[in-house]
Amino acid sequence: MSLHSILRHELxxxxxxxxxxxxxxxPENIAHxxxxxxxxxxxxxxxxxxPELEGSSPEDIQRIFDVAPLNVTNKRRRLAITVLIVAxxxxxxICNLIGIAGGLAISERLGVSGVHANWIGASYPxxxxxxxxxxxRFGAVYGHKNMLMLGSLCLIVFTLVCGFCxxxxxxNVMRAISGIGGAFIMPNAVAMIGITNPPGFVRNLSLxxxxxxxxxxxxxxxxxxxxxxxxxxMVWLFVFLAILTLIVTIPLWALLPREVPVDxxxxxxxxxxxxxxxGLIVFNVVxxxxxxxGWADAQIISTIIVSVALxxxxxxxxxYFSTDPIMPLSIFKxxxxxxxxxxxxxxFMAAGSLIWYTVLWQQEIRHWTPMQFAYGYTPFGxxxxxxxxxxxxxxxxxxAQWILAMGASCMLIASLLIATMPEQQPYWYQVFPSxxxxxxSPDLTYTAAQIIASNSVxxxxxxxxxxxIGSLLLYGTGLGIGLAxxxxxxxxxxKEPVVGYRAALYFTVALxxxxxxxxxxxxxxxxxxxxxxEDPADVDPADEVTAPVATGTExxxxxxxxxxx
Length: 565
Hints:
69% helix, disordered N terminus, mainly alpha, 21 helices, 0% strand, globular, disordered C terminus, Growth Hormone, Chain: A, 3 domains
């Protein structure tokens, strides 16, 4: 790379104490520091300021190349890190889906059944979707690597504790805490992928693999849950998952290089965090508890009032008082970004509701075992994995508006198939096509939204963008189960269970219709065909891997020409 290009991208200059060998730049001495004001190019430490170089022609500076990369990660190590990051996310997705795939069986073993069973499926995504909102900011301040490892440790410990819980409430509390671990994994893993890889094919492909871990994790979660619950005590399911997560975490910790946080001098907005987390948790609890106790219960009414008050307080604080907001409101000013958020949220609410009521229908009405459901869920894992790569292929070619429309349409068709099927029917008639079609929706939606969000913000906001999209996915799943359960409880009072199930599924259809209308009517995001960072401040010397490292000899050759100017 020429010096002209270096100046154009505003790369960090190097102060060299010796010209006997290559200039060495390490994370310890300049990682993420502001550009220095002068470039030392001779043993006499003569100043060469950038204005003096602006007139240099390419011929004068043709021997000047890029500075040394900020990190020393080679391609093989980077590949290994990416694979382990994907595997780490795979494990937290497995832990998420065991509550849905095995929700009925686990609740029965804990002595609870009926409308309370939805807590088994909702407790993990409740906290996972809530805390993911702040975990990206924590990663920016304290290091994405540190937060990723903290999340993995939390997931390991409390997943293990879940296996030894014999009380329904205690089990759900432990599941909720393990969900916090999952919340700290997802956005920080996405941020590390985004920071490591500039916008372009490599990043899109990496995010596609990352997105594929969600459907594959869902399928593996159903398979592992069915196998253990059918043949072994429940405790061994959670022991196995904790050990498997530990096996992934240890080598990832060993391979990840030491990290300098992108905003190490930043602050955490603790007041905003408390207000936002409190509002989201209380709001979700209301919708998941109301089906069991009824909306006339005074506790439910007072709780929802508290949640609304917390949301209002959060907005006022973030807009008027906070100097370091956990979710800058300016991030919503991008064209079509707000309607995009609603489309994604509604899609994932529908996805959570559809999966939950497919499980209930197959296990309660058709008397499937958890293992049989795992077999029937196979098309979701296969189709979902393929959908992530399809989304990565479509991103630079098709407007995101239509990619999201594909996702909403797939979920709409899948929900209609389940909502209209008779009580008893062969799997292949409607459940199989519904499972296969629905597998395309979450991954088309998630991958498109994650790539758009990642490419819409600078490096410093990668964790925030990852937190937002991850929050919509995870929080929407739990919220969808709660809202659909409310519809089931109200419509199905005193009637056959299938009546309530069908009502909840038609509610899911309505969510898809609204998402499709918002998408077609308000989302206008063009296709993305960038290669590299557009903002010069975001360029990292490590990105320019094709250029040789600058040496003192090369810099010395330019010095006489600069002095003549």
